[in-house]
Amino acid sequence: MTKAFLKNAWYAAAWSDEVTEDLFERTIIGQSLLFYRDAQGQAVVLNNRCPHRSAPLQMGKRRGDVIECPYHGLRFDKSGSCVHNPHGDGRIPEKMMTPAYPVEEKHLMLWVWMGDPDLADPTRIPDFSCHTDERFKMVKGVIKMDGYYELITDNLMDLTHVEYLHDGILGSDAISRGEQNVEQVGTTIWSNRWCPDGMAPPAWDKLFKDYGKPVDHWLYMRWDAPAHMLLDVGVTPCGKPRGEGVWMYGTDILTPQDEHSTYYFWAASRAHDLDDPAYDDIWAGAIELAFGQQDKPMIEAQQKMLQLHGGHDMDDVEAVYLPTDVGPMRARRCLKNLIEAEASGQNVPEPGHRALDQLLQDDSYQDRVEPVV
Ligand code: FES
Ligand SMILES: [Fe+2]
Quick one: which ligand is closest to 160's CA? Predict the structure, then answer.
C-alpha cells in the first residue's frame, strides 16, 4: 500500500552542523534533496535531480554559489534556475530548472518545506528552544531506522514499552501503574504518563545520584504533525517541585526518508549537571543503547513483518488495540486527517502547542495529567 506524506509541513532535514559549504544529499519523503551553504552561510535546498538527464547534482561541483552538473555541465543557481549551458549557442530551454525549497534554520536544525511555498509559515515550527536555551545542556544525533516513521511515532506516543524493551534501564513498576492521559489542542497532541510515588527506573535513579527512595516520575510527550515530538521527563522526590529532582527534554523528531526508512533526530536537553561534561557521554551512551540497540531492531523487525505478512497497520480496521494505544492512534488519525484535508484543498488547521518558556513557569505539572495549555 502506498502511503501519502503530508506536503504542507516543515520537515527537519538536518542538524545545522551537518550542512556546510560541501554538497550534501538527503532524501526526504521520497525526494532526493541537495543541501549546501552559500557564501553568506545561508542554507540552500534544491531538488538533487538534474532536469536534463537526472544526474544527481550532489556529484557536481560548486562554482561559487552555482552548482555545475557532473554530467553535461549545466549550471544552476540558488533559486534552481539554469544559468549556464556550455553547449551550442548556449540557449537555455525555458523549463530547464530544478525546484528550490523554502528552508528555515531554527533550534539548531534545518527545516525544509516541500509543499506549497506560499503556505510556508516558520511560526508553525514547534518549539524546540531547549536546544539553545542556556538553562539546558544538549547532546544530539541522528539515527537511521529502516522502518516506516509512524511505527516510531507509535513507539514514542505509548511509552509502556520501556518496561519490556528497555527492561533494567528505563522501566519501573510505577510506569505500568501510572496514569495515562491523552489530550489534543488544535493539531498538537499530548500523551502524558504520570507515575507518582514509585521507585525510579534504574537509569534515572543513577542520574539522581543513587537516590534509592520513591519518587514522582513523569513522561509527557508532545506531538505535532507530521512526527515532531518532545518528551518532558524526569524524577523528583514525591510531592516536590521538578527543580529538586533531575529532568530533561527529549527531542524525538522523525523525518521519513521514504515509506520504508526514517531519519530519527534525537536530542537530550538536560536540566541537571549542566557543567559536568561526563553527563554528555552518559546521555549520549544511554540514547545509543536505548534507541540504537533496542528500539531500532524492534522497529526494523516490525517493518519486515509488515512487509512479509501485510499485517495490520494501526490504520487498518482489522487492527486490535489496547487502551495504551490511544496516544499513537490519536496521532495517526490527526495526521491522516491532515493529509486528507491537504489532498482536498482545505486549509491546514493550527497547531496548539505553546512556548516551552510558558511551560517552565508552570509549577502545577506535578498533580496534573492534563497537558499544559
Ligand atoms: S544530466 Fe545534468 S547536464 Fe545533463
Ligand atoms: Fe524506546
Answer: 2
Distance CA 125, CA 351 (A): 9
Residue 156 alpha carbon to ligand 2 centre in Å:
7
pLDDT reported for residue 313: 63
At residue 312, the pLDDT reads 58
8 A C-beta contact, residue 300 and residue 147: yes
Q: Give the distance between the most distant pair of CA atoms in the chain.
A: 80
**DSSP E strands: which ranges in the chain?**
10-15, 24-28, 31-37, 43-47, 61-63, 66-68, 75-76, 82-84, 103-106, 109-113, 137-145, 179-185, 188-198, 215-224, 228-237, 246-256, 262-270
| pLDDT tens profile 351-370 | 776 667 666 655 445 544 44
Compute, in angstroms, the gap from residue 100 CA to the centroid of ligand 2. Answer: 36
Going from the Cα of 53 to the center of ligand 1, the distance in angstroms, rounded, reads 5
Q: Compute the distance from residue 98 Cα to the ligand 1 centre, in Å.
A: 11
Q: What's the pLDDT tens digit per position in 89-114?
A: 999 999 999 999 999 999 999 999 99
- Other CB atoms within 10 Å distance of the CB of residue 177: 11
d(CA 123, CA 125): 5
The ligand placed nearest to the CA atom of residue 93 is 1
**Which domains, and CATH codes, for the chain?**
10-119 (2.102.10.10), 133-367 (3.90.380.10)
Ligand 1, residues 49, 52, 97: which to mutate, most atoms within 8 A of Cβ? 52
Pick from 65, 70, 64, 58: nearest CA to 31: 58
| Pocket-forming residues, ligand 1, beta carbon under 6 Å | 50, 52-53, 55, 69, 71-72, 74
Task: Locate the ligand 1 atom nearest the alpha carbon of residue 74 and give its number.
Answer: 3
Q: Which residues in the chain come in under a pLDDT of 70?
A: 1-2, 311-319, 353-355, 357-373
